[in-house]
Amino acid sequence: MSGAAGSGAGxxxxxxxxxxxxxxxxxxGTPSRLKVLDAYLLYVLLTGAFQFGYCLGxxxxxxxxxxxxxxxxxxSFILGVCLRIQINxxxxxxxxxxxxxxxxxxxxxxxxxxxxxxINFVG
Length: 123
Description:
Elements: H1 2-29, H2 32-58, H3 63-87, H4 100-122
Helix pairs in contact: 2-3, 3-4
């Protein structure tokens, strides 16, 4: 029994070391543009999760409102991930003809179209 408890503690220690290593490498190796974009993605993800949790807990009485907000969160997250992929320096070879400024302009245009659709759906 003590061997099983010891291996559980070892696994928790290794998970902690993996998390510490990830945070250290993320902090030193990720450009600040990507860190800002990651913060935005985390915010949009948490917003969508909160809306879904609220829907489960309280209900979906104004269903169009819930659906519009959730579609906005999911769409914004997807467009943000696409922007992150395009401006990541490690992916420069795959997006040779697209500058970071062009990628951001495409992101803004697509977000505008997305939110026009969402506002139209709310009614």
